[in-house]
Design a protein that fits this description.
Elements lengths: L1 H7 L5 H5 L14 E4 L8 E3 L6 E7 L4 E2 L4 E3 L1 E9 L9 E6 L5 H12 L8 E7 L2 E7 L2 E8 L26 E10 L12 E6 L2 E6 L2 E8 L9 E4 L5 H14 L18 E4 L8 E8 L4 E5 L11 H4 L3 E5 L2
Parallel strand pairs: 1-11, 3-6, 5-11, 12-14
Antiparallel strand pairs: 2-3, 3-4, 6-9, 7-8, 7-10, 10-11, 12-13, 14-17, 15-16, 15-18, 18-19
Bound molecules: copper (II) ion (CU).
Length: 325
Protein backbone atom coordinates (compact mmCIF):
# COMPACT_ATOMS: atom_id res chain seq x y z
CA UNK A 1 0.00 0.00 0.00
CA UNK A 2 2.56 2.49 1.01
CA UNK A 3 4.57 1.26 -1.87
CA UNK A 4 1.92 2.46 -4.26
CA UNK A 5 1.67 5.77 -2.50
CA UNK A 6 5.33 6.48 -2.83
CA UNK A 7 5.26 5.27 -6.39
CA UNK A 8 2.65 7.89 -7.05
CA UNK A 9 5.16 10.41 -5.89
CA UNK A 10 7.44 9.16 -8.62
CA UNK A 11 9.86 7.87 -6.05
CA UNK A 12 11.58 4.73 -7.19
CA UNK A 13 14.68 2.67 -6.78
CA UNK A 14 15.26 1.44 -3.27
CA UNK A 15 12.62 3.77 -1.96
CA UNK A 16 9.55 2.26 -3.45
CA UNK A 17 10.54 -1.20 -2.45
CA UNK A 18 11.85 -0.93 1.06
CA UNK A 19 8.33 -0.09 2.02
CA UNK A 20 6.91 -3.38 0.90
CA UNK A 21 8.10 -4.84 4.16
CA UNK A 22 6.26 -2.37 6.33
CA UNK A 23 3.14 -4.46 6.29
CA UNK A 24 2.90 -8.02 7.35
CA UNK A 25 4.18 -9.55 4.18
CA UNK A 26 7.04 -11.76 5.10
CA UNK A 27 9.95 -12.71 2.98
CA UNK A 28 8.42 -13.46 -0.37
CA UNK A 29 10.81 -11.00 -1.92
CA UNK A 30 13.55 -13.54 -1.37
CA UNK A 31 12.40 -15.06 -4.61
CA UNK A 32 13.84 -12.14 -6.51
CA UNK A 33 14.58 -13.01 -10.08
CA UNK A 34 17.64 -11.76 -11.81
CA UNK A 35 18.82 -11.01 -15.25
CA UNK A 36 22.53 -10.85 -15.67
CA UNK A 37 24.22 -8.77 -18.27
CA UNK A 38 27.86 -8.94 -18.97
CA UNK A 39 29.63 -6.25 -20.82
CA UNK A 40 33.23 -6.08 -21.82
CA UNK A 41 32.92 -2.78 -23.56
CA UNK A 42 35.87 -0.58 -22.77
CA UNK A 43 35.12 2.11 -25.26
CA UNK A 44 32.92 4.27 -23.12
CA UNK A 45 35.34 5.51 -20.51
CA UNK A 46 36.41 9.02 -21.26
CA UNK A 47 38.12 11.73 -19.34
CA UNK A 48 35.89 14.37 -17.89
CA UNK A 49 36.99 17.89 -18.62
CA UNK A 50 35.98 19.34 -15.29
CA UNK A 51 36.61 18.48 -11.69
CA UNK A 52 38.75 15.51 -12.60
CA UNK A 53 37.49 11.98 -12.66
CA UNK A 54 35.94 10.15 -15.54
CA UNK A 55 32.62 9.87 -17.28
CA UNK A 56 30.63 6.70 -17.89
CA UNK A 57 28.11 6.76 -20.70
CA UNK A 58 25.50 4.21 -19.66
CA UNK A 59 22.14 3.24 -21.08
CA UNK A 60 19.41 1.27 -19.39
CA UNK A 61 16.85 -0.45 -21.53
CA UNK A 62 14.11 -2.75 -20.31
CA UNK A 63 16.36 -5.52 -19.12
CA UNK A 64 19.97 -4.52 -19.82
CA UNK A 65 22.61 -2.05 -18.76
CA UNK A 66 24.83 -1.07 -21.66
CA UNK A 67 28.20 0.64 -21.62
CA UNK A 68 29.60 -0.45 -18.26
CA UNK A 69 33.24 -1.58 -18.40
CA UNK A 70 34.29 -4.53 -16.24
CA UNK A 71 36.67 -2.29 -14.31
CA UNK A 72 37.07 1.44 -13.72
CA UNK A 73 39.40 3.57 -11.58
CA UNK A 74 37.92 4.96 -8.37
CA UNK A 75 37.44 8.56 -7.27
CA UNK A 76 34.91 10.95 -8.76
CA UNK A 77 32.88 9.21 -11.45
CA UNK A 78 30.36 11.08 -13.56
CA UNK A 79 27.56 8.91 -14.84
CA UNK A 80 25.65 10.01 -17.88
CA UNK A 81 22.67 7.71 -17.70
CA UNK A 82 20.24 7.32 -20.54
CA UNK A 83 17.02 5.43 -19.90
CA UNK A 84 15.14 3.98 -22.83
CA UNK A 85 11.67 2.49 -22.88
CA UNK A 86 10.41 0.17 -21.60
CA UNK A 87 12.64 1.00 -18.61
CA UNK A 88 11.15 3.24 -15.96
CA UNK A 89 12.38 6.82 -16.56
CA UNK A 90 12.51 7.37 -12.81
CA UNK A 91 14.64 4.36 -12.01
CA UNK A 92 17.67 4.50 -9.77
CA UNK A 93 20.91 2.84 -10.84
CA UNK A 94 22.81 1.70 -7.76
CA UNK A 95 26.52 1.06 -7.35
CA UNK A 96 26.57 -1.27 -4.35
CA UNK A 97 29.96 -1.88 -2.78
CA UNK A 98 30.19 -5.41 -1.36
CA UNK A 99 32.60 -7.44 0.67
CA UNK A 100 35.24 -9.01 -1.57
CA UNK A 101 34.20 -12.47 -2.66
CA UNK A 102 30.46 -11.85 -2.54
CA UNK A 103 28.91 -13.92 -5.28
CA UNK A 104 26.28 -12.59 -7.57
CA UNK A 105 23.86 -15.14 -6.22
CA UNK A 106 24.47 -14.02 -2.63
CA UNK A 107 24.05 -10.44 -3.72
CA UNK A 108 20.81 -11.05 -5.50
CA UNK A 109 19.37 -13.00 -2.59
CA UNK A 110 20.43 -10.31 -0.13
CA UNK A 111 18.92 -7.68 -2.34
CA UNK A 112 15.63 -9.52 -2.36
CA UNK A 113 15.52 -9.35 1.41
CA UNK A 114 16.60 -5.72 1.46
CA UNK A 115 14.04 -4.63 -1.09
CA UNK A 116 11.41 -6.44 0.90
CA UNK A 117 12.04 -4.05 3.79
CA UNK A 118 14.38 -6.36 5.66
CA UNK A 119 17.87 -5.73 7.01
CA UNK A 120 20.79 -4.76 4.84
CA UNK A 121 22.87 -7.86 4.12
CA UNK A 122 26.17 -7.94 6.04
CA UNK A 123 28.18 -7.93 2.82
CA UNK A 124 26.70 -4.58 1.76
CA UNK A 125 29.45 -2.09 2.59
CA UNK A 126 28.27 1.00 0.79
CA UNK A 127 26.08 2.35 -1.97
CA UNK A 128 25.99 5.21 -4.44
CA UNK A 129 22.89 5.84 -6.51
CA UNK A 130 22.21 7.83 -9.66
CA UNK A 131 19.19 8.56 -11.80
CA UNK A 132 18.61 9.41 -15.45
CA UNK A 133 20.72 12.34 -16.53
CA UNK A 134 24.14 13.41 -15.33
CA UNK A 135 25.14 12.56 -11.78
CA UNK A 136 28.57 12.42 -10.17
CA UNK A 137 29.45 10.06 -7.36
CA UNK A 138 32.57 9.12 -5.42
CA UNK A 139 33.49 5.44 -5.69
CA UNK A 140 36.06 3.85 -3.40
CA UNK A 141 38.11 0.96 -4.74
CA UNK A 142 36.51 -2.44 -4.25
CA UNK A 143 34.04 -4.98 -5.55
CA UNK A 144 30.69 -3.68 -6.73
CA UNK A 145 27.45 -4.80 -8.21
CA UNK A 146 25.67 -2.25 -10.36
CA UNK A 147 21.95 -2.86 -10.57
CA UNK A 148 18.52 -1.50 -11.24
CA UNK A 149 15.02 -2.71 -10.80
CA UNK A 150 13.07 -3.58 -13.88
CA UNK A 151 10.05 -1.34 -14.16
CA UNK A 152 6.72 -1.72 -15.74
CA UNK A 153 4.75 -3.90 -13.37
CA UNK A 154 3.36 -1.09 -11.28
CA UNK A 155 -0.01 0.39 -12.15
CA UNK A 156 -1.17 3.67 -10.78
CA UNK A 157 -4.80 2.69 -10.86
CA UNK A 158 -6.34 3.09 -7.42
CA UNK A 159 -9.48 1.11 -6.82
CA UNK A 160 -10.88 3.71 -4.52
CA UNK A 161 -9.03 3.55 -1.23
CA UNK A 162 -10.19 0.40 0.45
CA UNK A 163 -9.68 0.77 4.17
CA UNK A 164 -7.97 -2.56 4.80
CA UNK A 165 -4.41 -1.35 4.72
CA UNK A 166 -3.25 -4.91 5.27
CA UNK A 167 -5.01 -6.24 2.20
CA UNK A 168 -2.02 -7.25 0.20
CA UNK A 169 -1.84 -9.28 -2.87
CA UNK A 170 -2.68 -7.95 -6.25
CA UNK A 171 0.50 -6.01 -7.03
CA UNK A 172 3.06 -7.58 -4.71
CA UNK A 173 5.20 -9.20 -7.31
CA UNK A 174 8.82 -9.77 -6.27
CA UNK A 175 11.28 -7.23 -7.59
CA UNK A 176 13.15 -8.12 -10.72
CA UNK A 177 16.61 -6.69 -10.87
CA UNK A 178 19.34 -6.52 -13.47
CA UNK A 179 22.78 -6.99 -11.92
CA UNK A 180 26.23 -6.37 -13.42
CA UNK A 181 29.55 -6.88 -11.61
CA UNK A 182 32.08 -4.03 -11.51
CA UNK A 183 35.58 -3.74 -10.09
CA UNK A 184 36.73 -0.31 -8.96
CA UNK A 185 40.50 0.02 -8.83
CA UNK A 186 42.69 2.59 -7.10
CA UNK A 187 42.13 5.92 -8.81
CA UNK A 188 42.70 9.60 -8.39
CA UNK A 189 41.89 10.58 -4.82
CA UNK A 190 42.22 14.28 -5.52
CA UNK A 191 39.07 14.73 -7.57
CA UNK A 192 36.15 16.79 -6.38
CA UNK A 193 32.48 16.58 -7.14
CA UNK A 194 31.20 19.24 -9.56
CA UNK A 195 29.73 22.42 -8.06
CA UNK A 196 26.00 22.38 -7.42
CA UNK A 197 23.39 24.80 -6.07
CA UNK A 198 23.62 23.56 -2.52
CA UNK A 199 24.18 20.72 -0.13
CA UNK A 200 21.89 18.38 1.77
CA UNK A 201 23.73 16.44 4.44
CA UNK A 202 22.19 13.44 6.17
CA UNK A 203 23.02 12.44 9.73
CA UNK A 204 21.36 9.90 12.08
CA UNK A 205 18.51 10.96 11.89
CA UNK A 206 18.04 14.28 10.21
CA UNK A 207 19.29 16.66 7.53
CA UNK A 208 21.34 19.80 7.38
CA UNK A 209 20.19 21.78 4.39
CA UNK A 210 22.02 24.62 2.66
CA UNK A 211 20.58 25.17 -0.81
CA UNK A 212 19.75 28.12 -2.97
CA UNK A 213 17.48 28.48 -5.98
CA UNK A 214 18.74 26.25 -8.77
CA UNK A 215 18.54 22.84 -10.33
CA UNK A 216 21.02 20.60 -8.54
CA UNK A 217 22.34 19.70 -5.13
CA UNK A 218 25.08 17.69 -3.54
CA UNK A 219 24.05 14.94 -1.14
CA UNK A 220 26.33 13.79 1.65
CA UNK A 221 25.77 10.97 4.09
CA UNK A 222 27.70 11.87 7.23
CA UNK A 223 26.47 8.86 9.19
CA UNK A 224 29.05 6.35 10.27
CA UNK A 225 26.57 3.52 10.14
CA UNK A 226 23.31 4.02 8.27
CA UNK A 227 22.26 4.38 4.66
CA UNK A 228 20.29 7.48 3.71
CA UNK A 229 19.03 9.48 0.78
CA UNK A 230 17.09 12.70 0.31
CA UNK A 231 13.75 12.81 -1.43
CA UNK A 232 12.79 16.44 -1.98
CA UNK A 233 9.12 17.37 -1.73
CA UNK A 234 7.99 20.69 -3.15
CA UNK A 235 5.26 22.27 -1.05
CA UNK A 236 5.05 25.41 -3.16
CA UNK A 237 4.03 28.50 -1.25
CA UNK A 238 2.66 26.71 1.82
CA UNK A 239 4.57 28.16 4.75
CA UNK A 240 7.20 26.22 6.60
CA UNK A 241 5.37 25.94 9.92
CA UNK A 242 2.28 24.51 8.25
CA UNK A 243 4.32 21.90 6.38
CA UNK A 244 6.20 20.90 9.52
CA UNK A 245 2.98 20.51 11.43
CA UNK A 246 1.23 18.37 8.82
CA UNK A 247 4.02 16.27 7.40
CA UNK A 248 3.96 13.41 9.93
CA UNK A 249 0.24 12.85 9.43
CA UNK A 250 0.76 13.02 5.68
CA UNK A 251 3.36 10.24 5.78
CA UNK A 252 1.53 8.10 8.27
CA UNK A 253 -1.74 8.39 6.38
CA UNK A 254 -0.26 6.65 3.36
CA UNK A 255 -1.95 6.35 0.01
CA UNK A 256 -5.41 5.43 1.18
CA UNK A 257 -5.97 8.50 3.28
CA UNK A 258 -6.76 11.93 1.92
CA UNK A 259 -3.94 14.39 2.56
CA UNK A 260 -4.28 16.74 5.54
CA UNK A 261 -6.58 19.68 4.69
CA UNK A 262 -3.60 22.03 4.75
CA UNK A 263 -2.24 20.16 1.73
CA UNK A 264 -5.55 19.91 -0.13
CA UNK A 265 -4.54 22.39 -2.81
CA UNK A 266 -1.18 20.81 -3.53
CA UNK A 267 -0.45 19.75 -7.07
CA UNK A 268 0.62 16.17 -6.45
CA UNK A 269 1.99 15.89 -9.95
CA UNK A 270 4.59 18.43 -8.96
CA UNK A 271 5.19 17.24 -5.43
CA UNK A 272 8.55 15.67 -6.05
CA UNK A 273 11.21 18.29 -6.41
CA UNK A 274 14.08 15.88 -6.93
CA UNK A 275 15.90 13.11 -5.15
CA UNK A 276 19.38 11.87 -4.48
CA UNK A 277 20.41 8.27 -4.83
CA UNK A 278 20.92 6.10 -1.77
CA UNK A 279 24.33 6.54 -0.14
CA UNK A 280 26.06 4.57 2.56
CA UNK A 281 28.21 5.95 5.39
CA UNK A 282 30.59 8.65 4.17
CA UNK A 283 29.14 8.59 0.67
CA UNK A 284 28.43 11.60 -1.49
CA UNK A 285 27.21 12.51 -4.93
CA UNK A 286 25.36 15.09 -6.95
CA UNK A 287 21.65 15.02 -7.69
CA UNK A 288 19.11 16.81 -9.78
CA UNK A 289 16.56 18.90 -7.88
CA UNK A 290 14.56 21.99 -8.63
CA UNK A 291 14.61 24.73 -6.00
CA UNK A 292 12.57 27.84 -6.61
CA UNK A 293 12.95 31.04 -4.69
CA UNK A 294 10.15 31.54 -2.16
CA UNK A 295 8.99 27.91 -2.08
CA UNK A 296 8.93 25.52 0.86
CA UNK A 297 10.53 22.09 0.53
CA UNK A 298 11.10 19.04 2.66
CA UNK A 299 14.05 16.65 2.45
CA UNK A 300 12.91 13.20 3.56
CA UNK A 301 14.56 9.79 4.01
CA UNK A 302 12.63 6.57 3.41
CA UNK A 303 15.49 4.13 3.88
CA UNK A 304 15.38 1.64 6.74
CA UNK A 305 18.11 0.95 9.30
CA UNK A 306 20.79 -1.64 8.61
CA UNK A 307 18.85 -3.91 10.92
CA UNK A 308 15.60 -3.29 9.06
CA UNK A 309 12.47 -1.62 10.34
CA UNK A 310 10.31 1.28 9.28
CA UNK A 311 11.63 3.96 6.93
CA UNK A 312 13.57 6.68 8.73
CA UNK A 313 10.93 9.31 7.98
CA UNK A 314 8.41 7.30 9.96
CA UNK A 315 10.65 5.65 12.57
CA UNK A 316 12.67 8.76 13.43
CA UNK A 317 10.87 11.72 11.82
CA UNK A 318 13.84 12.02 9.51
CA UNK A 319 12.81 15.07 7.50
CA UNK A 320 13.79 18.70 7.32
CA UNK A 321 11.47 21.44 6.11
CA UNK A 322 13.12 24.50 4.58
CA UNK A 323 12.40 27.58 2.55
CA UNK A 324 14.54 28.64 -0.38
CA UNK A 325 15.33 32.35 -0.32
CU1 LIG B 1 17.75 7.60 6.34
Amino acid sequence: MQQRWFRLLAVTGLVGLVLVGCGDDGDEAATTTTTTTTTADETTTTESDEAGGQTLELTVTGDALDGLPASIPGGVVTVNLGVEPPADPDLELDFSKVEDGTSEQDFTEGLGSLLGGGPFPDFMENNAGVGAGEYSVVLEPGSYFVWFEKGGEDEEGDEGGEEGAEAEGEEETPPEVVVTALTVTEGDDGGELPETDGTITAVDYGFEVDVQAGSSFTFRNDSSQQFHHAIVFNFGTIDRATVEENLPAFFEGGPDQPPPPAFADLDFEKLEGGHSGVFGPGGSGTAIGTFQSGNTYAAVCFIQDRTGGAPHAIAYDMFEVFEVE
